[in-house]
Write a structure and sequence with these properties.
This protein has about 270 residues and is of the alpha+beta class. It contains 6 helices and 11 strands. The protein is globular. Bound molecules: 2-oxoglutaric acid.
């Protein structure tokens, strides 16, 4: 469980880095799962997810890469255990501010050594807007992420600005000249640390120029009573309850469409 100080820090700054949420042994085991998964996937498809806009942040002549997989819990059971881990979901519940935590999606990122792609500064909100802005991300670190590995950077307090206009080209991002990565606060992390932040918190990350990969899984979660404002970014597994219950299934009289979705295990997207 998070301390009241950690929750207060999150409310004020829009993020909180929870040290040692996982043990170093657990982090090492998840790291192995991630690298084994990407090795399997690379044999069948292109796994690079570098944003078009990120290319503009690369100063080196070398083309950066970002190895990626969405919804990792469908690929290895270890990740299914991670997303219902009581330590993760109790922290998420404290930050969301209710007893219930619902999955939106997960994504694994491996920033390869020496050329791991950056993320331009952005809010996550434009990707999947929700009415009440309860959405949070938890970035689980499976190896150390110092500054030179392209650790996540945040703009403290930016969650209070509400949704900001973003450029859409090359991935939703804030204007590169007005939001330089270097101006944001770096959040260097150790293996086992988890960085939580609001989907309104401006964040990004630099290039991994170190000799080691940076390995993370991001879990995006919300209050089940916070409906999506538009139908977008839907994915397999969305709506799964990670903690508590989904009260929305019993609060409205189901229309025939909603009843059909419930029967198919669809639930709220
Ligand atoms: O993992 C990172 O460095 C940042 C990820 C991120 O910003 C995102 O997925 O929205």
């Amino acid at each position: 469980m998070l301390s009241p100080d950690q929750v207060a820090f999150y409310r004020e700054h829009g993020y909180v880095l929870v040290k040692g949420l996982l043990s170093t042994e657990e982090a090492a085991a998840y790291r192995q799962e991630c690298h084994a998964l990407i090795t399997r996937l690379q044999t069948i498809r292109d796994v690079d997810a570098t944003w078009g806009s990120a290319r503009k942040l690369s100063t080196a002549a070398v083309q950066t890469r970002l190895l990626h997989c969405h919804d990792v819990q469908f690929y290895a059971a270890a990740f299914a255990r991670l997303i219902v881990d009581d330590r993760l979901t109790s922290a998420a519940a404290a930050l969301i501010g209710g007893p219930n935590v619902q999955l939106h999606h997960t994504k694994m990122f491996i920033k390869p050594p020496e050329k791991g792609s950056p993320f331009p500064m952005h809010q996550d909100q434009p990707y999947f807007p929700h009415d009440r802005h309860s959405m949070i991300a938890a970035i689980c670190h499976f190896d150390d992420a110092p500054l030179e590995k392209g650790c996540v950077r945040v703009v403290p307090g930016s969650h209070k600005l509400g949704p900001l206009p973003h450029d859409r080209e090359g991935g939703w991002h804030l204007p590169l000249d007005r939001y330089p990565l270097e101006d944001a606060v770096p959040c260097p992390a150790k293996a086992g640390d988890v960085l939580f932040f609001s989907y309104l918190t401006i964040h990004g990350s630099g290039i991994n120029v170190s000799a080691e990969a940076r390995t993370t899984v991001l879990v995006q979660m919300r209050d089940p009573l916070d409906p999506p404002s538009i139908r977008t970014h839907e994915s397999r597994g969305q709506g799964m309850m990670l903690r508590g219950i989904d009260p929305s299934c019993c609060t409205v009289k189901p229309s025939s469409e909603a009843a059909a979705a419930t029967t198919m295990g669809g639930g709220a997207m």
